[in-house]
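Exercise 7 asks you to align residues with tokens for two separate proteins.
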Amino acid sequence: MNEPDPAVRDSTLSALKVVCPSAEMLSQESSPRHNPFAAAEADVEWSDEEVLLPKRRKTPYIPSQIKVAPRISLSPADTSSDETDSRGLSPNRLSVNGSPLIPPKSPSRPDVRPGSSQDDLVKRFYDVTRERDALRKELQRQSMGPHGIPAHASVVYKSDEKTLIEELLGLREEIRIWTEEYFTGTPSSSRRRPYLHTSKELFSSLTDNYTTYLKHPTDRPLLIQSFLWSKLQHRIFSTLSKGCGYIWAGKLGDRKLRPINDTLRKAVRNEAQAEEYHRWRALTVNLLVPQVDGKWSPTFDAAPVLKWIKRFCARLRRRLRPWACRRLREGKDQLYTIVSAAVALDLKMKKQRADYRFITWTGGKPTQFWGYGFYDSEMDDIESEDEGYRGGSVISGASRRRKRVEMTLAPALERCGNANGHVFDQNFILVKADVTCRRLERAREMGRRKPGFFNRR
């Protein structure tokens, strides 16, 4: 193995001295013969942990026999002093060539002295680790500018991708619990409210079999989940229509932010322009809604945002009342929490330099979100994961053969670019879409068929 370049090693030592004061002992040129602290067979790559904890030898070392002359005097005083000397000599005190195993005393290690035991060595290792972490945090704190934005362009950004995925999965679970709690069973005729919108107007774009879902006592929540996600995706996460998206910005979103954002987004033609656009978008959102002491502090009046969320929740409850099995007024707070979490998730997605977005698929028409092929790399079939979860329903053989998506319950989350705002020509599916590929049929239609009767085609 070739020796590393001395220039590279010197620059590495200089950087190490800044973050770890105990590395001042490494300034001299060391080798296994002259440096007793380095391992005999060290690799090219090294770190401060390897210096503090040297590698063990592959072949055991057998020390030579030492002849000790017996003492003539065996008085109690001599005996006590002899025992004291034997206790003071630690087996780890000296190395093979007689030099101390522990590095010299450093200002950051005031309690280190030659002859320390293995426990002292381990304690020193943890002290070095804590000191290094503290210095890194201090360096990161000093490199941050106002509003928590790094002051230097060379700083490596860390995205909140893991947090985004956890919040998205939590939002899916909250929607599933709410729909199963208020839409499972048979709606009571005494609690029915007037139909403000027809079922075709609300659910025809989600599936062509919406009437069967509305009459099914256990599968009705699936259709309601698909309806809620379609509204959240259109009104909160999407910015294609006027009045949609930028809910967290209030009136500022439609009056000021939307026109300039649409103009810049439509002007993107290549990779360099995409990087500049997403850098501007992330910086603008962070300046509008900075994070101070772990809490968001908008630089504008946020009262219209809360007012819009209440109106949106009331509109959803009025549309879904005819098919509810319980009073939706009881679940008003839960629905408000769901919509608020969706707005917060959209804000966190737009604060990132990477482009996070929800994607959907369409069939033969632009408004037909069903009837397309199933892709295992981008979708999850809920029926294949949990067999027998939906009881009382009939799965047709044709849907098994074709594997066609009958309804999308939740959209997929896609990411373009990395945390630093580069490479926007690559897409990654972070969370797959929840779909169902079975064709729901009425049980009574199957019961009408008599044994031995063959249908003519």
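Second protein for Exercise 7:
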Amino acid sequence: MSTTKLRTGWQPHKLREHRESHGLTLEAAGDKLRQVAQRGGLRVAANFQTLWGHENGNMYPGPHYRRAYCLLYKATEPELGFRLPLPSEESGDLTLPLPGPLSPAATEEAASAITQGLDRVSDQTQDRDPTAGDALKARVVNAWRGRAMSGSIGTTTLVLVGGYAGSGKTEFARFLGDISGWAFLDKDSLTRRLTERLLISMGGDPHDRHTDLYLNEVRPLEYKCLMDAANDNLDCGISTILAAPFIAELNDQAWLSRLTNRCKAKGVDVAVIWVRCDVDSMREYIEFRDAPRDAWKLANWDQYASTLNTDSSPPGVHLTIDNRLGAAISVADQTREALRRVIA
């Protein structure tokens, strides 16, 4: 959980009001919070003292707690008083409709929930190619329909999900994998252990992600391994989602053009997503995950943050996801919960 400090828009009493409106004691709320967190793969302890501290403003809930509260109370962060709403959240009901039990219309209800979730997190001000972005969203929804109805396999797609450290790119890529059934590959999961051993063998720091040794000698190999693994899937007709920063790659139009042409020759479409986030939220998540590879970033935060462009997405992007203040990941959580209700 985060230490207490001034948070714009934080209204702790709203959390208590939601709990009481659900008729829950602190103990009962803690039990239910642990249950919903376990389903969502979130790390929360949810004991009596922690919930009491959140509701009384003594402790600001960390990112996994906030996500779990949103799922438990079927509400968004602004509605629970964690923060002020983004412009796109200021009007109307902020929660997604949850489909009822399985019925003849359940598949289309689920498709509608996915469509609304993707539309709500799309940052229209950053779209470089709206047509391709809309086509990608439609394809994700159709992938769900195909899985639900045992339909035919569609066109093979390679999706690159990029963003800065702590932006939520991996979580969003995993969400796309959850609902589409496409293969999901994360660069860190695929290469981190090899990267650490390689850096040690070269006389470097295993957690180095900023020196010339890493950037010039190791980083290119990481991306080569990631793309090779993706190509194995694509050659089998398996649509694949890749999660990695892709910062240099997406700002290099020649790199993206070469990749697109190679894939097109194999009948594979390429779609690029950029997960946009604010600096403070990225730092909060980096601190929360407490990964050794982030030590330099946190120790030199001002220097690191000065290199980030949080105002615009790279030029090759088809769809920008607005995850400022964690808004997109919260919607993704609610969409997952909606789908669980359909297939339960």
